[in-house]
Amino acid sequence: MNINQKLLVKIKSYLDDYECELSEVKKLLCGRNQFEIRQQNAVALVESIMSPHGKRHLFKHVYQLGQVEYTIRPILRRQRDHVVHALLSFILGIYINEYFINSGAINRVDCFQWELAGLLHDIGYPIEIANQAILSPFFKDANKTKSDLGFKNSLGLRIVPVGLDHLTNHKKSLDLIQQQLNSWDLTINARTEYKRSINSNNINHGIIGSLILLNLIDAMYQRYNRKRVYNDVTDNGIDWNQYYFEKDIIPACTAIFLHNLPKTCFTQSKIEISKAPLAFLLKLADTLQEWERPSKDHPHGFPSSAFDIKIENHKLFLFAEIPEENKSKIRDEIAQSLADPNVEIV
Question: 105-142 pLDDT, tens per residue?
């Protein structure tokens, strides 16, 4: 039982649709290189996938994530990998998209939308890591010292992003994301969740990453389509038609915004596959991808040989030979955010 081998066999005929080279995917799934080499391979694969869309610059943010995680590991030992994870989630998502979502009445998620959301959903982690690994421990120790001296007032430092809500064409990022959330029938207030994250100093990498990505791609569209016209506007074979910004970019960034929100955001409405297939796919793939993720408790991660997957009668089964507490965590994460997921963790 090896989920990487299963995925490779199942998705290889679809890889061209997702701008993937079979040899590169095989290297990632079946290679036995050291983890740092696999991270480098993952970053290179992101660059090659994004290049045909004129967005190769975005791979630098995945590279930066890898550098930060590798450097920070001695300080924050519980930190899990998010670079190879993003690629494995992306590959898992191709399988889910083609065999699970596309097997029912729902059309598969657009390949380019999945490339953006699947590959780049964790680019906000360096900011979250900096807060968790450096700032919070520093002020925790400082406040302990003050407390020992008999003083109760605490010290702190709040990370306040600047300019994330402002796009180049006088639009507001959070307004565009809110419109997409509304179209997906999700009762989530984007601005409220953003402010809650900032005010609590609990940086949410999904929220921050989505706003950074939306700003960067908006700048690209503004550079090549200053009037934001709904016509073909090509540069070096890349079409910057405003239609694609609204059709692909905003939904992908909104799915990223959603993927790490707390469970309380979904008490009134959960993500439905029929209404928000992209958001559904990202949340599901991100949650199920649990193998080969180094952490403090599992320095090498759970092996891919401990997992298998199949889809039968419009139901997805993930077989995992891992502790029951880890299975329960996956089940709870899915149940709390996805409506009628038809997924079973065995």
Answer: 678 999 999 999 998 898 887 777 777 767 777 778 88
Mean pLDDT for 311-336 is: 96
d(CA 206, CA 217): 16
Starting from the edge strand earliest in sequence, which strands make up the sheet with 307-312, in order? 307-312, 315-320, 343-345
DSSP secondary structure letter of residue 239? E
DSSP-derived 3-state class of residue 27? helix
The answer to whether 65 touches 126, Cβ cutoff 8 Å, is: yes
Burial (Cβ within 10 Å: 0-12, 13-18, ≥19) of residue 313 = exposed
pTM of the complete model: 0.88
End-to-end CA distance of the chain: 13
Task: Give me the residue spans of the domains in the chain.
Answer: 3-140+156-345
Instruction: Say whether pLDDT at 75 is over 60.
Output: no
Helix axes 3-11, 22-30, angle to 10 degrees: 170
Task: Give residue-wise pLDDT tens across range 212-266.
Answer: 889 989 998 999 999 999 999 988 888 999 999 999 999 999 999 999 999 999 9
Angle among Cα 181, 278, 184 to the nearest 5 degrees reads: 25
Quick check: 220 and 55 in contact, CB under 8 A? yes
Instruction: Check residue 151 and report its DSSP letter.
Output: -
Residue 136, SS3?
helix
Strand partners for 316 = 311, 343
Q: Measuring CA to CA, which residue among 247, 214, 218, 217 is closest to residue 230?
A: 247
Give me the residues paired with residue 272 across strands. none
Spatial distance between the Cα atoms of 53 and 110, rounded to a whole number of angstroms: 14
